[in-house]
Amino acid sequence: MGTAHLTAKYPPMIYTTQRGQSFDLEKDFSSPERHILQKLFIWKDMAVSVDEFRLKKQEALRKGWGDSGPIQASRNLESITRDFEAQVGLRVRAAKPGQR
What angle do CA 77, 39, 16 make, to 5 degrees? Predict the structure, then answer.
């Protein structure tokens, strides 16, 4: 009896920045960049400051994918991470009532 091979086609994973710029995460980023984005999606919600988020981004770029070595951030990665930084800033300011 033979085996059937099914090829699953997943819908594109699109990320749209607060400024309306859209990226297809599969097509617009290399595998190492997607790995870094996965980490930064988490840090976007965990970082206690924009500075901490930036530090985590630099660490991820320096280590690379599975400690493979430094990765040069593309223009697309820079655009998304600037959007993440803005979101971190908004979240941090919202958590500190009375401070602006």
Answer: 45
- Domain positions in the chain are 30-94
Residues 6+ apart with CB under 8 A from 63: 69
Token couple for 43: 């840090």
Give residue 52's pLDDT. 97
CA distance 12 to 22: 12
Longest CA–CA span in the chain (Å) reads 70
CB-CB contact of 17 with 79 (8 Å): yes
Counting Cβ atoms within 10 Å, is residue 63 exposed (0-12), middle (13-18) or buried (19+)?
A: middle
Average pLDDT, the chain: 87
pLDDT of residue 98: 62
> What H or E segment, with its residue span, contains residue 14?
strand 14-16
